[in-house]
Amino acid sequence: MVVSVIIPAWVDSAFGVEVLARSLESIVTSSTFRDFELLVVDDCSPTGPEILRIASQVGARLIRLEKRSGPAAARNAAARIARGRILVFMDADTSPHPDTIERFVDRLAADAHIDAIVGSYDRYPTAEGLVSRFRNLHHSFVHHRSKSTASTFWTACGAVRKHVFDRLGGFDESITRPALEDVEFGLRLSASGGVIELDRNIQVTHHKRWTTVSMFQTDLFSRAIPWTLLLRRYPLPHDLNFRLEDRASCFLAALIPAAVCCTVLLHAYWTVPAILILIATLNVQLLAYIAGVIGWPRAILCFPLLLLYLSACVLGLAIGLWSVGRFRSTWVSLRS
């Protein structure tokens, strides 16, 4: 057995069941690479019988956890019994392209120095609505502009050699909710001298639906705050969504409340528009990427969502720094 495809699932809605069925069906029926086993881990979902039915229909092996333990523990449970030399991780709300698994295998076979590979979301997320389009395309954009040499891992579309995964002890199971457990694994792998490659041509389609509330909560509690806490152990990468223009955008977003005060108290009416124009300029490539899919009129309507995203990043940074008492040392890290 060459590949073990691992998908953790915590599903609590009919839509989630539908998406999981769609994802598993696409893996089994459309993949051009056939020498794989499919392992589905039910993280004690309330829809357990439905997940069992779906897994049985596609011939997947189902592992059901006795209590909800989080995606890190779910993936580790599957990895312990996996027979493949390569572990391919995907999410329950993604569908791979026909050549996704084959590209992972070919790239790892071609270069023995590569320990892991991550792919990207494609430009065709299926969820309708402006918020879903913005959030899914934003994530796709980040990977499509990032460096080919990565320092983090990504379990929505990622592969790692099983012996490397086992040597590092898998994902950190103390992270019991979806909160960058894959990023932490990648940073740990990189710190140990491992090589991670980003190949944006290895793609999956994202089906996740977003609301304004779910987007803000995820960016705050599952992204910004955990990232800040990771700074205790790892340096901040100058890649992904931490490039210079991203940091500058967050800094400008943090100035908006002060600019509003200047407008009210000092009648400096130019301050808020100036900041917004600067943020738009820094993110024009992102907006153009989104516009390429949904058109410029709708892409411009995404600008308030970009401000909300930046606000979550700033707030998460503040909360994370406060929680660990590292204001001064982390500021030095950010500047360096």
Topology summary:
Layout: E1 3-9, H1 14-30, E2 36-42, H2 48-58, E3 61-64, H3 71-81, E4 86-90, E5 94-96, H4 100-110, E6 116-121, H5 130-145, E7 149-150, E8 157-161, H6 162-167, H7 181-191, E9 196-206, H8 212-230, H9 244-266, H10 271-282, H11 284-294, H12 296-301, H13 303-324, H14 327-335
Helix pairs in contact: 1-2, 5-11, 8-13, 9-10, 9-13
Tally of distinct domains? 2
Structural class category: alpha/beta
Average of per-residue pLDDT values: 92
Amino- and carboxy-terminal Cα gap: 45 Å
Largest sheet: 9 strands, mixed
Secondary structure: helix percent: 55-70%
CATH architecture tag of the largest domain: Alpha-Beta Complex
Strand residue percentage = 5-15%
Shape: globular
Our Rg estimate from Cα atoms comes to: 21 Å
Descriptive notes:
There is one protein chain. With 336 residues, the chain is α/β, with parallel strands linked by helices. It folds into 2 domains: 3-210, Spore Coat Polysaccharide Biosynthesis Protein SpsA, Chain A; 244-335, no CATH class. The chain is built from 14 helices and 9 strands. The chain has helices at residues 14-30, 48-58, 71-81, 100-110, 130-145, 162-167, 181-191, 212-230, 244-266, 271-282, 284-294, 296-301, 303-324, 327-335; strands at 3-9, 36-42, 61-64, 86-90, 94-96, 116-121, 149-150, 157-161, 196-206. Strands 1, 2, 3, 4, 5, 6, 7, 8 and 9 form a 9-stranded mixed sheet that branches. The radius of gyration is 21 Å and the shape is globular. The model has no long low-confidence stretch (mean pLDDT 92).
